[in-house]
């Protein structure tokens, strides 16, 4: 009997045994840094001439790993391999397919600290953030495995005398999986395994800033015996192989998570039918956010201030769900702002390996982009905390807070994807909700209030895919808070929810006259 799904618990690093286990894992991984990783196509490990170095953003002299890069020729080989494998994988018993996910989840659980340590080095997560990322990856596999079992059961249809009617969910074909770097394990694993457990074969093109953690997942899937050719590992620059993969006539679907601009670009490319293409490509695109925490005059002020700071600066603000705006009722504005400034200034910045609250941003390009937004903020508002680079041999930026910004200011509208918070003083509750909705995005939001009428007003008026009351706007749990956004935040696929696998299947009805 399959146990009911339960979320993987987070690790308590105050427990000395867990602290020691994490330190051991960091030491083990450190000893493995700098190795070379191949592409994997149909089980064949391919080292190419062209390679990229994955650098530790917290200590840029440290090479985490060296990843071989695909070109179009290898991309073509991967597509043909996935097509060939689809011929058999699509008919593999769904129970058996789910079994691979359960096995992989169990193995990842055994090596939880090690996977977390890789993320500490490769993308600069602190221990807690890295641990939560691994827990979510495990959750996705446990959840989607069970979802496949549910979908493979007989589906309810209206009975008709004299007929045997059955509806089944069959896979689509070859998919291209394009994840971002910011949840380099959880999102990459979730997107990949959802497609595969549904009976599709895939090409996994990891983000160029986080290929090594993906390579470690590929090693794990080989270890647990997933048939070769089901997941083909194809690292390479999105700008060079992305269009080729998306436009290919044999590509049946694209599962993308990343920025708005890349998502829109893929959407356009995928919409045009290639020669000999015999289907309308399906696109799942989860994109950016400009999320906010709204504070009502009746809110618990301490909790609201903590919620704002955690939402804005967790993982240096590099979450699609990051609360990069705080919209505060004028009656409590001064008190909350003071608390937010104090809590922000108290955040310690330093090496992720040493588990500082705030680490580096992911690379030089991100650093430059965020610093540019900070300069824009200085023109648009009043700087009250941070405002520049922080010390360290990496891409460190001070958690930064601006006030006195207008609702249409650039830093109130554009996704910065870094530790920058814009604070707005609202005249009344209705205006606060209006300002909340005043972006092209619609991913997450939070409201702190103890006024029941206001909570009910917000329930229907705050337009975003994931809305939270009296808690932070980050940290969705698989199965508990299915995740996805509205408007330019994407196609609202609701990852970690009961609708998700349907995106990777098509329903087939077979009717037999008796
Ligand atoms: P990007 O859009 O830069 O990249 C995402 C992925 O797309 C990467 O693998 C990238 O490859 C690839 N890519 C780039 N160009 C192309 C192309 N022309 N064709 C195909 N693929 C391409 O986003 P980031 O990696 O910087 O991720 C951060 C963004 O992701 C933020 O906007 C964030 O809000 C969003 N996000 C959304 C989530 C959601 O659920 N809504 C969750 C997490 C993040 P390469 O790295 O090689 O360029």
What does this structure look like?
The protein is of the alpha/beta class and 514 residues long. It has two domains: 21-53 and 62-287 and 492-513, Aldehyde Dehydrogenase, Chain A, domain 1 (3-Layer(aba) Sandwich); 292-478, Aldehyde Dehydrogenase, Chain A, domain 2 (3-Layer(aba) Sandwich), CATH 3.40.309. Helices cover 40% and strands 19% of the residues. It contains 15 helices and 19 strands. The protein has helices spanning 16-32, 72-89, 94-110, 112-123, 127-151, 186-197, 211-223, 238-247, 260-271, 301-313, 330-345, 364-380, 410-413, 429-437, 452-461; strands at residues 35-37, 39-41, 44-46, 51-55, 63-68, 163-171, 174-178, 201-204, 231-233, 253-257, 282-286, 291-295, 323-329, 382-385, 400-403, 420-426, 444-448, 466-469, 505-513. A seven-stranded mixed sheet has the order 14-15-16-13-12-17-18, with helices on both faces. Strand 10 (253-257), helix 9 (260-271) and strand 11 form a beta-alpha-beta unit. It is globular. The chain starts with 15 loop residues before the first helix and ends with a strand. The model has no long low-confidence stretch (mean pLDDT 98).
How many domains comprise the coordinates? 2
Instruction: Briefly note the CATH topology name of the largest domain.
Output: Aldehyde Dehydrogenase, Chain A, domain 1
Which architecture of the largest domain does the CATH hierarchy give at level 2?
A: 3-Layer(aba) Sandwich
Which sheet architecture does the biggest sheet show?
7 strands, mixed
- Strand numbers in spatial order across the main sheet: 14-15-16-13-12-17-18
Distinct bound molecules = NADPH dihydro-nicotinamide-adenine-dinucleotide phosphate
Q: CATH first level of the largest domain: which class?
A: Alpha Beta
SS content category: alpha/beta
Helix content: 25-40%
User: What is the percentage of strand-forming residues?
Assistant: 15-25%
> Rough shape?
globular
Count of DSSP strands: 19
**CATH evolutionary superfamily of the largest domain:** Aldehyde Dehydrogenase, Chain A, domain 1
Low-confidence stretches: none
Terminal CA distance: 34 Å
């Amino acid at each position: 009997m399959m146990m009911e799904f339960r979320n993987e618990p987070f690790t308590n690093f105050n427990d000395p045994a867990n602290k020691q286990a994490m330190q051991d894992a960091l030491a083990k991984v450190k000893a493995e840094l700098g190795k070379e990783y191949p592409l994997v196509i149909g089980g064949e490990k391919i080292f190419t001439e062209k390679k990229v170095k994955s650098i530790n953003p917290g200590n840029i002299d440290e090479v985490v790993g060296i990843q071989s890069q695909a070109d179009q020729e290898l991309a073509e080989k991967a597509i043909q391999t996935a097509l060939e494998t689809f011929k058999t994988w699509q008919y593999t018993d769904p129970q058996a397919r789910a079994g691979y996910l359960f096995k992989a989840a169990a193995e990842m659980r055994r090596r939880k600290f090690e996977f977390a340590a890789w993320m500490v080095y490769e993308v600069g997560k602190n221990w807690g953030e890295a641990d939560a990322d691994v827990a979510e990856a495990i959750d996705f596999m446990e959840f989607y495995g069970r979802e496949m079992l549910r979908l493979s059961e007989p589906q309810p249809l209206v009975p008709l005398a004299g007929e045997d009617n059955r509806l089944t969910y069959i896979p689509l074909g070859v998919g291209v999986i394009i994840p971002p770097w910011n949840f380099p394990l959880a999102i990459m694993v979730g997107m990949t395994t959802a497609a595969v457990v549904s009976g599709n074969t895939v090409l996994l093109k990891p983000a160029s800033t986080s290929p090594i953690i993906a390579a470690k997942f590929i090693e794990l899937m080989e270890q647990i015996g997933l048939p070769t050719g089901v997941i083909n590992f194809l690292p390479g620059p999105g700008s060079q192989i992305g269009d080729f993969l998306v436009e290919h006539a044999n590509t049946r679907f694209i599962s993308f998570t990343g920025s708005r601009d890349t998502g829109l670009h893929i959407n356009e490319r995928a919409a045009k039918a290639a020669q000999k293409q015999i289907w309308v490509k399906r696109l799942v695109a989860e994109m950016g956010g400009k999320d906010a925490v709204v504070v009502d005059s009746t809110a618990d002020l301490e909790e609201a201030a903590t919620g704002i700071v955690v939402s804005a600066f967790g993982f240096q603000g590099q979450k699609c769900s990051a609360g990069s705006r705080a919209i505060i009722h004028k009656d409590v504005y001064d008190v909350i702002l003071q608390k937010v400034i104090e809590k922000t200034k108290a955040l310690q910045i330093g090496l992720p390996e040493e588990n500082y609250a705030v680490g580096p941003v992911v690379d030089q390009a991100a650093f430059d982009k965020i610093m540019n937004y900070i300069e824009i903020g200085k023109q648009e508002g009043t700087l009250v905390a941070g405002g520049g680079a922080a010390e360290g041999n990496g891409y460190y930026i001070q958690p930064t807070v601006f006030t006195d910004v207008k609702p249409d200011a650039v830093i109130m509208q554009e996704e910065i994807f870094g530790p920058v918070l814009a604070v707005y003083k609202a005249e009344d509750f209705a205006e606060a909700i209006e300002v909340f909705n005043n972006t092209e995005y619609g991913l997450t939001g939070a409201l702190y209030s103890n006024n029941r009428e206001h909570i009910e007003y917000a329930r229907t008026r705050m337009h975003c895919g994931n809305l939270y009351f009296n808690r932070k706007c980050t940290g969705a749990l698989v199965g508990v808070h299915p995740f996805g956004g509205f408007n330019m935040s994407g196609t609202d696929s609701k990852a970690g929810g009961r609708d998700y696998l349907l995106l990777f299947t098509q329903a087939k009805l077979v009717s037999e006259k008796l």
